[in-house]
Amino acid sequence: MKCESFNNELVNSGDAEKLSAEALKHIEKCSSCKYQVEMDRAVKGYINEQKSRKLPSYIKSNIITSIERESVNYFNIFMPALRVASLLVLFFTGYYTAGYMAQERSDVGDEQIVYYDYFTTKDSGFSFESIWFQD
Amino acid sequence: MGRSFDESFIIQRIKEGDKEAFSHIIDRYGQKVFQTSIGFVRDISEAEDLVQDIFIKVYEKLDKFKGESAFSTWLYRIAVNMAINRSRKLKMRSFFSSVEGSEVLLNEVYRSVGNDTIIEEKEKRAIIQKAIEKLTLMQRKVFVLSYYQDMANSEVAEVLGITVKAVESLLFRARKRLQEQLKKVEF
Ligand SMILES: [Zn+2]
């Protein structure tokens, strides 16, 4: 077996522990290919060590706590109350505005009444002008 | 059948507001997601943090899971995407926080190796880690799912939405690239 074929076998299988008899024979004599096998083992060893770490149990509690905190949605809790409150505000705003305007209508000065009557009464032009010119 | 029945039942319960049922999902997939996280972010506490964020995201997005793929496939897709984003952020952070960077540190290791100094176990790990980080994005995804999560090629293909042939080819190129990177140093 040549080094190139050995390397192809190693990379294709991805597992130095599953080499063919021919490949095993090759590494007995070839130090550079033997090194490839050692490197492969070192990488696997590193990965195995990394993934053997266990997820600490407090992570699970942290996740559950976060989820519970997240689902206490204040917006949802206060939404119905907020709707009622905004309706009440609208109602009272309307009520007082109408009252204020009605009051304002009765408080207007004489000049405004003349002005108002001039444009709204049937023969306003006549009455206004006659008063005006009489003085 | 029992497993998938249980799982869809649990998912339904969670969707209906049973938050405690989510702990079953963490029990079943927590360790696997942790292994994937370690594969992308080498720092253990960062990986733990990432696991938390992944599961919170899964919980938030659960309404969008319509069962078109296996739940595990859907979950691992979220995990891989979030892990990649986190590793990018960490890379940026370490780039800005260290002017020297890990590259320089590794070059020192390579130099000391050239001077016949015995490499410490810690340095050996750093070299392997760096070599893994040199993989392209797709090679890395395939490599992590295959080596850190022990997934079959068909599962990797499903999670990444590629063919099994593409997974095999990416794995081959990933191993080749690792070999080339590690040739620089004698263990
Ligand atoms: Zn050889």
Q: What are the bound molecules?
A: zinc ion
**For the residues shown, what is the average pLDDT of chain B?**
86
The fourth-level CATH homologous superfamily of the largest domain in chain B is RNA polymerase sigma factor, region 2, helix turn helix motif
Total of domains of chain B: 2
Using the CA coordinates, give the radius of gyration of chain B: 19 Å
CATH topology of the largest domain in chain B: Rna Polymerase Sigma Factor, Chain: A
The structural class of chain A is mainly alpha
Shape of chain B: globular
Counting H and I runs of at least 4 residues, what is the number of helices of chain B? 9
Structural class of chain B: mainly alpha
What is the string of helix and strand elements of chain A?
HHHHHHH
Number of strands of chain B: 0
- Which percent band covers the strand fraction of chain B? under 5%
In CATH, the architecture of the largest domain in chain B is Orthogonal Bundle
For the record, give the distance between the C-alpha atoms at the N and C termini of chain B, rounded to a whole number. Answer: 48 Å
Helical fraction of chain A equals over 70%
Could you name the CATH class of the largest domain in chain B? Mainly Alpha
Largest sheet of chain A: none
The largest chain-to-chain contact, stated as pair and per-chain residue counts, equals: A-B, 29 and 39 residues
What is the straight-line distance between the termini of chain A? 130 Å
Q: Percent helix among the residues of chain B?
A: over 70%
Task: Give an account of the 3D structure.
- The complex is a heterodimer of chains A (135) and B (187).
- Chain A is mainly α.
- Chain A has two domains: 3-53, no CATH class; 74-132, no CATH class.
- Helices cover 83% and strands 0% of the residues of chain A.
- Chain A is built from seven helices and no strands.
- Chain B is mainly alpha-helical and 187 residues long.
- Chain B folds into two domains: 1-97, Rna Polymerase Sigma Factor, Chain: A; 109-187, Winged helix-like DNA-binding domain superfamily/Winged helix DNA-binding domain (Arc Repressor Mutant, subunit A, Orthogonal Bundle), CATH 1.10.10.10.
- Helix content of chain B is 78%, strand content 0%.
- Chain B has helices at residues 2-15, 22-40, 44-61, 71-97, 101-114, 121-133, 137-148, 153-160, 164-183.
- In chain B, helix 7 crosses helix 8 (153-160), helix 7 (137-148) packs across helix 9 and helix 8 (153-160) packs across helix 9 (164-183).
- The longest helix of chain B has 27 residues, at 71-97.
- Chain B is globular and about 55 Å long.
- In chain B, 30% of the residues are buried.
- The model of chain B has no long low-confidence stretch (mean pLDDT 86).
- At the A-B interface, helix 1, helix 3 and helix 4 of A face helix 2, helix 3, helix 6 and helix 9 of B.
- Zinc ion binds at residues 3, 6, 26, 30, 32-33 of chain A.
- Residues 3, 6, 26, 30, 32-33 of chain A line the site of zinc ion.
